Amino acid sequence: MIHIKTYRGHIRNWEALGKELGLAVGNMTREAREEAILIKAYETWGKNLADHLYGMFAFALWDDEKQELFCLRDQFGTKPFYYYLTQDNQLLYGTFIKDIISQDGFVKKLNQDMLQIYLTLTYVAGEDTFFAGIKKLMPGHWLSFKDGKLEIHRYWKPEFKPDTSRTLDDWADEIHETVKQMFREIKTDDETAESFLSGGVDSSYVLAMSDARRADSCGYDEERFDESRIAAKTAELLNVEHSVAKITPEQFFEIVPYVMYNMEQPLGDASAIVFTLGCNATAKHTKLCYSGEGADEFFGGYNMYRNAERYGDNLKNFYVGNTNIMKEEEKQRILKSYHPEILPINLVKYIYDETEGLDPLTKMSDVDIQIWLEGDIYLNVDKMSTAAGLEIRMPLTDRRVFDIASRMPSEYKVNAEQNKVAFRTAAAKVLPEEIAFRKKLGFIVPVRIWLADENYNQDVRTKFQSDYAAEFFNPDEIQKIYQEYISGNSDLWRQVWTIYTFLVWYEEYFIKR
């Protein structure tokens, strides 16, 4: 007999799977039908079951007959999964780190080596975590534990095979028809969803393709950072209600400890704080919301991708993903303990090996798909929506959508004038061109201003001067960074914020608890 031990996610193609597997799932609750599908899929396809599933999922099941634990994480890592081997060789596991650290046999100890990676990337990349011994099951991997033996297997990886025989319109048509399919599966008729909306094409396209009658945005009093005004025009055009969570600096700084605790790992992405406030506000009037993650990495959405050809083969020497905040010499200067062999570039060497012979844009995209999405974007979406009691579904994150991107030549992703060319062309089928082809702004936050304001940064200054900061950092060196920042070098806000978020997280998990 098969038992589901833990599961979180949403299986999109449940209806087709029910028919294929001979299950009468139509009248079941969502929880019951998805558990029934996982059990029957495992009985039918064994450890290859993920090849048949579309959606977001991480789970563990126990096979009575084989006396084996089987755990799996989806292809892109939209849901997390962690595991830990105790000193007496027992396996602790769960979709939350809290599932593990509360169990007998867990020994809490900081993995200080991760700090070197974090100060560059601003997130926890790769399989290790800040908790010594707790590892992430990486995207596209399964784990089995039987007779005290642990096996990890990679069942899926991104593969790219450009097809040069098709036109821009061909690609746009395929994207659009596939996105239509996503929205036939993304929810059932009895569910009601809203949709997050920024000023960008991804969230606008998702809203336009959905049946959501309300869109949710975040805004600021600082007009040059505020995308909610643009979002309001999109919502009006699409004839949907629009709500804006106005974010103040007081709210922003007050909620940082809550974010770092619920994130379970430090995250130096300032937009995560705003996203949390947006989730909390949205959860007051819905329990289900759409969001547009995935398209940037799949279809060439970041402005830096337009430099790919210029970087050429040199990419493998420096490109570790979307963020690269501190150089090695800077980390060596500020850290009490520095090990020159612990380098972020080592985390992505296997990706460059896998993409040998492919063009530079594809290499950059693959790094971000395998490292950045899992470590930052999907982690943030999952942890903070769950903490708010809000479920988020991401229709653009799907193997069928990625399949298009994997076959699309880079010239239809990025050119000299524009990024996400084919994707924007698809979006223009349901959006005005001024929205579909609007310049990417990113999820910008006024933190570079707020962080220097003495009305709000008291906790930052306190943390930088704390005894536990001195355990990890040379106090004079981090004070130099902070003083230079508040003296006018606003580009240093990321260094300040990344150090600060680590210290807040450390206090939550190693000082308070």
Q: Major sheet: order of its strands? A: 1-2-3-7-8
Determine and state the CATH class of the largest domain.
Alpha Beta
**Hey, roughly how much beta strand do the residues contain?**
5-15%
CA radius of gyration:
23 Å
Residue-averaged pLDDT: 96
CATH architecture of the largest domain: 3-Layer(aba) Sandwich
Cα(first) to Cα(last) distance is 39 Å
Count of separate DSSP helical elements:
24
Computed structural class: alpha/beta
β-strand number: 13
Give the low-confidence spans: none
Level of helix content? 40-55%
Q: How would you name the CATH homologous superfamily of the largest domain?
A: HUPs
Number of domains: 3
Q: Do you know the CATH topology of the largest domain?
A: Rossmann fold
Shape: globular
Largest sheet: 5 strands, antiparallel
